[in-house]
Design brief:
It is a single chain. By secondary structure, the protein is of the alpha/beta class. It has two domains: 128 residues, Rossmann fold (3-Layer(aba) Sandwich), CATH 3.40.50; 109 residues, Arc Repressor Mutant, subunit A. The chain has eight helices and 14 strands. Strands 4-3-5-6-7 form a five-stranded parallel beta sheet, sandwiched between helices. The longest helix is centred in the last third of the chain and has 15 residues. It binds calcium ion. Calcium ion (CA) binds next to loops.
Length: 247
């Protein structure tokens, strides 16, 4: 996030977006729409320079095309996740359902199919930046650490521990867990989770929730039982695991 002075002299935070796209036509389209929405935009035309830029520029959001020369978008995302927790929106071809699932599995937060509306992309970036982490400046929450079984979560510092060991979650995984942990034992429907974590502005697929729950389980579960219980045809709840996990 960059801080700059607006025309009235007030300090404003400017969201920095890294666009990774090799097609000039898409680059121009994205530059125009993201800049006019007030975002600071940096570009990378291939995977290698995307990773360098992500490290040097520390973007808040990465808009990542899947089809890139050299290392592809999936691999870029996988490597990005080893050092960055920027939000990642993946751009995929219309019929790329498998690509989308792989993208989410390696830590993308969201995806859009080409061709897409730049207006919708701008709206999604804005929605991501409105997520609860923006309340980090609200320092009231000293006692808001939550504990369920072996799981401990601090919403203020956005840290998570399992059995006393810190685990590294993406922003989306954290938001998902932070939502579930607010009401342990309550069943959240997929629609509720989509609304809480991704925002209610768009139609989203259940896959988005399923894949992120699977990623989250991979990071927080120890042994055979899951802290997140699937409730068939309904949704998920967080519980001190006492029953075998089913999907
Ligand atoms: Ca491309």
């Amino acid at each position: 996030m960059l801080t700059k002075t607006d025309h009235a002299g007030a300090m404003v935070d400017q969201t920095k977006v890294l666009v990774v796209e090799d097609t000039a036509e898409f680059q121009q389209m994205l530059e125009a729409s993201l800049s006019s929405a007030g975002f600071s935009v940096v570009f990378a035309g291939d995977g290698e320079s995307a990773l360098q830029s992500a490290e040097a520029d520390e973007p808040d959001v990465v808009v990542l095309d899947l089809g890139l020369p050299g290392i592809d978008g999936v691999e870029v995302c996988r490597r990005l996740r080893t050092f960055s927790d920027a939000y990642v929106i993946m751009l995929t071809s219309r019929d790329g359902e498998v690509d989308r699932l792989i993208g989410l599995a390696v830590g993308a937060d969201d995806y859009m199919s080409k061709p897409f509306s730049t207006r919708e992309l701008v709206a999604r970036v804005q929605a991501l930046m409105r997520r609860p982490r923006q309340r980090r400046s609200d320092m009231s929450g000293k006692d808001d650490v939550r504990v369920v079984g072996s799981l401990r979560l601090n919403p203020s510092s956005r840290q998570t521990w399992v059995d006393g060991l810190e685990v590294s979650l993406t922003k989306t995984e954290f938001d998902l867990l932070n939502t579930l942990i607010q009401r342990p034992d309550m069943v959240f429907t997929k629609e509720m989770l989509l609304e809480q974590v991704w925002g209610s502005e768009w139609e989203r697929s259940d896959h988005l929730v399923q894949v992120h729950v699977a990623n989250l389980r991979g990071k927080i579960d120890v042994g055979d039982t899951s802290l997140i219980t699937s409730v068939r045809s309904v949704g998920y709840r967080l519980a001190v695991a006492t029953e075998p996990t089913s999907n």
